[in-house]
Specification:
Length: 84
């Protein structure tokens, strides 16, 4: 799957591939050069997944109940209210 353009992967596909890479690296049965290549691919997949999560967070809107009724807030606004 390394030949596949990572930007075309869905979040789920990227996570599945990342899980596979982690399993291979944890097993320790891969040559050093292969381990380095897998690690590099894993880092790219990790960045891809992080970027996709950020895109989704920006799109999510939550209804928050306040003393004035329900208020529509973006996901980022809700995290700021929680101090995150």
């Amino acid at each position: 799957m390394a030949a596949t353009n990572n930007s075309e992967l869905t979040f789920e596909q990227a996570m599945e591939r990342l899980d596979s890479i982690v399993s291979k690296l944890e097993n320790g049965d891969v040559p050093l050069e292969t381990a380095i290549e897998l690690f590099q691919e894993g880092m790219k997949l990790s960045q891809l997944c992080g970027g996709k999560l950020e895109q989704v967070e920006r799109k999510i809107e939550l209804l928050i109940e306040t003393e004035h009724g329900f208020q529509k807030k973006t996901f980022a606004d809700v995290n700021e209210d929680k101090g995150e």
